[in-house]
Design brief:
The protein has 191 residues and is mostly beta strands. It is built from 3 helices and 12 strands; from the N terminus they run βββββββββαβαββα. Strands 1, 3, 4, 6, 7, 10, 11 and 12 form an 8-stranded mixed beta sheet that branches. A hairpin with a 2-residue loop joins β8 and β9. The longest helix has 16 residues.
Length: 191
């Protein structure tokens, strides 16, 4: 998905997605990367509503500009809000609200630390949580990509930061391959 320039006079596009899982169902939310171009303007809200016997594997990655084409992100507006509920009880919230975001904020150590690609993987449900034991062996930590995870309250969260989408995709591919084991990763993720 690519989010292009909109005039400040244009109405703010609002994308609301509601996903409901019940009866021992599985959801693999693995969209292609969201690329934010200069002067982008988007507000998005995603609600994941699961039953206690359902499983969710969510992987969202956001790219600030398209570095492979030498297109740098300078400024834009992006608001992203996710809720994950199990049996109507909120178990996790993710929120990014940039206001009018500028490149200088990407360079801050407390945000992206000069990186232009970020990913979050969230896993809920026993189908995948039972496989967390050796996950640390699949994480990428080098000069291009940093990743780490935490596992608590019956959920797993993996965070990745990378210099560009190319390196980020390789790091994500390793993690997804770990959870899919002998199965094939969806073709949308083939590098």
């Amino acid at each position: 998905t690519e989010i292009y320039t909109l005039s400040l006079h244009d109405a703010l596009p609002i994308l609301v997605i509601n996903l409901n899982l019940s009866n021992n169902s599985n959801l693999f939310w693995l969209p292609k990367e969201l690329i934010l171009f200069n002067n982008c303007n988007l507000k998005r809200k995603i609600n994941f509503n699961l039953s206690k016997d359902s499983n969710l594997l969510l992987c969202e990655n956001i790219i600030f500009g398209r570095t492979s084409m030498k297109e740098e992100f300078e400024k834009g507006y992006f608001s992203d809000f996710w809720n994950i509920n199990i049996d109507k009880k909120l178990i996790h919230t993710e929120a990014i609200n940039t206001g009018l975001f500028e490149k200088k904020y990407l360079n801050s150590f407390s945000t992206l630390n000069y990186n232009s690609a970020v990913a979050t993987i969230i896993i809920v449900g026993n189908k995948f949580l039972n496989k967390v034991k050796n996950l640390h062996e699949t994480l990428t930590n080098n000069e291009n990509t940093t990743s780490n995870y935490s596992n608590w309250d019956n959920k797993l969260i993996v965070r990745l930061l990378s210099k560009d989408s190319y390196n980020l995709k390789f790091a994500i591919d390793k993690i997804l391959s770990y959870f899919f084991e002998g199965s094939k990763i969806p073709k949308v993720w083939n590098i």
